[in-house]
Amino acid sequence: MIIKNNNNGYFIDNVNKIWEVPVNSDHMNILKEIPWFKYLTLPFERNWNGIELFLWANNNYYFAHIVCIIYALFIYFGPKIMEKQKPFKLEKPLKYWNLFLALFSCIGTLRLMPYVLTNLIKYGFVSSICSPPIAPLTKGPAGLWLSLFIYSKYIELIDTFFIIARKKSLSFLHWFHHLTVLLYTWDAYVCCQTIGVFFCAINYFVHSIMYFYYYLSSCGKRPKWGMIITILQIVQMIIGTILTTSGMYYSYKHPFSNVFPVEYLSQPLKVGCHFIKTNGVFACLMYVSYFALFFDFFIKRYITKGIPLVEWVTANKKPAKRE
């Protein structure tokens, strides 16, 4: 059975078949869950139908892998090509690039965060991480800005171009983060990972601050609160790990049903917890590695200030008191 319709609404047996449900169904409209949200959004956002973008990702799953291979080749050969070249003067384009991403992330935060917080308050934690992600994957403001988030990960690879073209140091953290985030978000989008909307909202929020910081820095006014961004990134990784492990736990304890309603569920465990385990394992590995990398960056940048940790500990070790 693919689709069943009765007096209680539409039912499907696979989240990936949501496009077979009439798009004018109230069950697929996020504004049904947050009526006041319409006053904060534009008409084209409220009328958005993102089925085509979702279908394109499903039909072109390996597109992300191809792009990542090209990206990896650029990381390897780009610096070699630039060795005998003068660095490009891209200060002005970089400034506007950072401003664009800051504004984009800010708007994304204002569109997705109300959805996430309202569902947490209205339905609770378990419902928020276990209900099939029908509404945000299909139509309305959440659907638009979730889709834009996924596709923006391709555009953000341009960050690396600015680094290599200007002959700046390219860190492992930078390219590893960009590459794995693209692969993960694309997979989460295609397999309809429930907690993906959480990750998008949090990432939008952190990036809105981070790219604004980069914008100010590119204007020659480097702020003194760079540490706050790194702390937010570390907290983001901790939250991501908690959400992922919680989803894994509930998905094993409450296996997902074959048929479920096309709506946000107040008691999702009656049909099981919708959580894609393979994507969850990827997320756990990703968040743990990010935590280690960002924590290491925090220690080296703000604590030891570039001094090897052993030397820093030795230099700051207090002499024992003589009795």
Would you summarize the structure shown here?
The chain has 323 residues and is mainly α. It has helices at residues 43-46, 51-59, 63-82, 91-123, 125-130, 134-138, 140-155, 158-165, 172-191, 196-218, 226-253, 277-303, 309-315; strands at 3-6, 9-12, 260-261.
Overall description:
The protein has 13 helices and three strands, in the order E-E-H-H-H-H-H-H-H-H-H-H-H-E-H-H. With 323 residues, it is mainly alpha-helical. It has one domain (3-315). Strand 1 and strand 2 (9-12) form a beta hairpin. Helix 2 crosses helix 9 (172-191) and helix 7 packs antiparallel against helix 9 (172-191). Residues 23-28 have low confidence and may be disordered.
Number of helical elements: 13
Largest sheet: 3 strands, antiparallel
Ends distance = 82 Å
**Structural category:** mainly alpha
Q: What is the average per-residue confidence, as pLDDT, rounded to a whole number?
A: 84
Order of helices and strands: EEHHHHHHHHHHHEHH
Categorize the overall geometry: globular
Number of strands: 3
Sequence stretches where pLDDT stays below 50 over 5 or more residues:
23-28
What share of the residues does DSSP label as strand, in percent? under 5%
Q: How many domains, in number, for the residues? A: 1
Strand order of the largest sheet: 1-2-3
Into which percent range does the helicity of residues fall? 55-70%
Radius of gyration: 22 Å
Membrane topology: Multi-pass membrane protein
Pfam families: ELO
GO molecular function: fatty acid elongase activity
Subcellular location: Membrane
